[in-house]
Design goal:
This protein is 89% helix and 0% strand. With 214 residues, the chain is an all-alpha fold. The chain is elongated.
C-alpha cells in the first residue's frame, strides 16, 4: 500500500513539474528566435542602405555629361523600384521582429512576477532595464528613417515622372535642386539606418542565450 502511494505521489510530482520544465525550456527558445529575427532585420537594414547608395548614384549619374541618358534613366527608375520593394519587405520584417521582441519582454516580466527570491527578481528586472535603451534606439532610429523615407521616395518618383517626360539636358538641369535634396535626405536616412543597425545587433547579442558576461 505504501509503495503504491509512493509511486502515485511520484507520478503526481512529475506531472506538476512538467509545466516548470516546459517554461524553463521555452524562455531560451524564445530568446533564440528573437535574436535570430533581430539579425534578419539587420540584414534587411543593410540591404536597404546598400540599395540606397546604388539608387542615389544612378540618380546623380543622370547629371553627368557622358553616357546614354536613356540607359541611365532606366537604371535610375529600376533602382528606385528595387528600393521601394526592399523597404516594403523590411517593414514586414521589422513588424515581425517588434512583435516577437515585445512578446519576449512580456514573458520576462511575467517570470519576474513569479520569482520569489528577491535577488533573482531584482536581477531580472535589471536585465530588462538594460535592454530598454537598446530597444528605444531601434524604435527611434527606425521611426526617423521611416519619416524621411516617405517624402524621399515621393521625390524619387516625382523625378522619375518628370524626367520620363523631359529626358534631356534641360530637364535634368531643371531637376537639379530636387536631386540635391534627395542626396541630402538619403544621407540622413543612411545615418538613421546605421544607428538602427547598431541597436539591433546590440540587442541581438544581449538576448542571445549563452552570451558572455559583461
Amino acid at each position: 500500500m505504501l509503495a503504491r502511494f509512493t509511486k502515485a505521489a511520484l507520478v503526481a510530482l512529475m506531472i506538476l513539474a512538467l509545466p516548470v520544465a516546459a517554461m524553463a525550456a521555452a524562455a531560451p527558445d524564445k530568446a533564440e528566435k528573437v535574436a535570430a529575427k533581430m539579425l534578419d532585420l539587420d540584414k534587411a537594414i543593410t540591404t536597404i542602405s546598400t540599395q540606397l547608395d546604388v539608387t542615389l548614384n544612378s540618380m546623380n549619374a543622370l547629371a553627368e555629361p557622358n553616357g546614354d541618358l536613356t540607359a541611365k534613366y532606366k537604371a535610375f527608375t529600376d533602382n528606385t523600384a528595387k528600393l521601394d520593394k526592399m523597404a516594403a519587405k523590411a517593414k514586414s520584417t521589422s513588424q515581425t521582429a517588434a512583435s516577437q521582441r515585445e512578446e519576449y519582454l512580456k514573458q520576462m516580466q511575467a517570470a519576474a512576477a513569479e520569482i520569489q527570491n528577491p535577488d533573482l527578481k531584482a536581477n531580472l528586472e535589471k536585465r530588462k532595464a538594460e535592454l530598454s535603451p537598446k530597444i528605444e534606439q531601434i524604435k527611434t532610429s527606425l521611426g526617423s528613417a521611416r519619416d524621411i523615407y516617405g517624402p524621399f521616395m515621393q521625390d524619387l518618383k516625382d523625378l522619375s515622372l518628370f524626367l520620363g517626360n523631359q529626358l534631356n539636358a534641360n530637364g535634368v538641369a531643371s531637376a537639379s535642386t530636387l536631386m540635391a535634396k534627395c542626396t541630402t535626405d538619403g544621407g540622413k536616412m543612411k545615418a538613421e539606418l546605421a544607428s538602427a543597425s547598431e541597436g539591433v545587433k546590440s540587442l541581438a547579442a544581449a538576448i542571445q542565450p549563452g552570451a558572455p558576461a559583461k
